[in-house]
Amino acid sequence: MGNLARKYLEQQQAEQTVQNKSQVKLKKSWLTPGEKIIGVVFAGMVCFGSVHLISNQSNIYEVNKDIQAVEEKISEQQKVNGDLQVQVSELSSYDRIFEKAKKMGLIRDENNDVKVVQER
């Protein structure tokens, strides 16, 4: 019986060590809590940065569109100004002014011309 009791005791101890081993095994997580927090903060910063970048690009696009509209208005106004300048030069020609003066009854006196005096 000594052998049988010893085998029985050994079996009980083996079962206890197997139970202890199964209880001792802890499931390790892939990331520590600190790493998880850092990951969440990093992901939040990336999301915030991307939203901020897209918002800035949208604002830049709007400003560029406004600039192009103003430049178009400027070029149109420059064309109008150029046309008006041509009209001014045409209307201020000496012959035209002389014709208008004749129609209004003004006469040209050869003896009473305006003379330009230059300084030395």
Kindly describe this structure.
Keywords: Cell cycle, Cell division, Cell membrane, Membrane, Transmembrane, Transmembrane helix. Belongs to the FtsL family. With 120 residues, the protein is mainly alpha-helical. It contains 3 helices and no strands. It has helices at residues 2-24, 33-91, 94-103. It is rod-shaped and about 160 Å long. The mean pLDDT is 84.
In short:
This protein has 120 residues and is mostly helical.
Largest sheet: none
What is the strand content? under 5%
How many runs of DSSP E, i.e. beta strands?
Answer: 0
Order of helices and strands: HHH
- Estimate the mean pLDDT confidence: 84
Rg result: 50 Å
State the end-to-end distance.
148 Å
Task: Supply the helix-strand structural class.
Answer: mainly alpha
Shape: rod-shaped
Low-confidence stretches: none
What is the tally of helical segments?
3
Residues in helix, %? over 70%
Subcellular location: Cell membrane
Organism: Bacillus salipaludis
Family: Belongs to the FtsL family.
Keywords: Cell cycle, Cell division, Cell membrane, Membrane, Transmembrane, Transmembrane helix
